[in-house]
Design a protein that fits this description.
globular, 0% helix, 11 strands, mainly beta, four-stranded antiparallel sheet, seven-stranded mixed sheet, 114 residues
Length: 114
């Protein structure tokens, strides 16, 4: 079955960087678009980045544009989210998502605090 597993979360100071990874299995990873979402306490889940199956096309909402970079390694079935210039408001649980298979990982917590 489709499985997604995130890793790489942790505590980082404001202005710092963190790279999240998501391992995928159970489907032909290279054929399908993938996304990263996040959910802060008391707030709805929101999209932070998406990428096409080939990796050539990416999209970001304005609030992370220029700070976050989504990428993928189709040879390893891995999805990444490079997060730079982190702000306290980026604190959230970050989730890997396949819209095609309606699949979510369990999430990884990112805390941005001094």
């Amino acid at each position: 079955q489709v499985q997604l597993m995130e890793s790489g979360g942790g505590l980082v100071q404001p202005g710092g960087s963190l790279r999240l990874s998501c391992g995928a299995s159970g489907f032909p990873f290279n054929l399908y678009p993938m996304s990263w979402y996040r959910q802060a306490p008391g707030k709805p889940r929101e999209l932070v980045a998406s990428i096409s199956g080939t990796g050539r096309s990416t999209d970001y909402p304005d609030f992370v544009k220029g700070r976050f970079t989504i990428s993928r390694d189709n040879s390893k079935n891995l999805l990444y989210l490079q997060m730079d210039s982190l702000k306290p408001e980026d604190t959230a649980v970050y989730y890997c998502h396949s819209v095609t298979f309606t699949a979510w990982g369990k999430g990884t917590l990112v805390t941005v605090s001094s």
